[in-house]
Amino acid sequence: MNRFLRGIVLAAFAVASMPLGAASQNPRPDYGVYCVQGRLVVEQKHIEELKRAFGEDVCRLDQDPSPAGAREKVVRMGGVGAECSCSI
């Protein structure tokens, strides 16, 4: 029985020390450059969250893993608050 319990403990330790899935490794999305109701914004939220808050007039124009990179991209597009369009 002692050997059995030791095996269970070792198995539990092995499972507990395994890396977590990809969703847990990056719980927040990249910083997105979005067009929200005709205006440029930088957000770290998922597009689904923005659509729930602002309706369907939301699209992602670009993204970057860093806030500085996303801000640089939005500046090249006219800056935060500049006019934009989700129509292709």
Describe the structure.
The protein is an alpha+beta fold and 88 residues long. 42% of the residues lie in helices and 20% in strands. The chain has helices spanning 2-16, 22-25, 47-54, 67-76, and strands at 31-36, 39-43, 58-64. It has a three-stranded antiparallel sheet with strand order 2-1-3.
Outline:
This protein is α+β, with helices and mostly antiparallel strands.
Strand tally is 3
As a whole number of angstroms, the C-alpha radius of gyration is 21 Å
Helix-strand sequence: HHEEHEH
Low-pLDDT stretches: 7-24
Q: How does the overall form come out from the CA principal axes?
A: flat
Number of helices: 4
Taken as a percent bin, the fraction of beta residues is: 15-25%
Fraction of residues in helix:
40-55%
User: Which secondary-structure class do the elements indicate?
Assistant: alpha+beta
- C-alpha end-to-end distance: 68 Å
The whole-number mean of residue pLDDT values reads 79
Number of domains: 1
Tag the structure with descriptive keywords.
88 residues; three-stranded antiparallel beta sheet; single chain; 4 helices; 20% strand
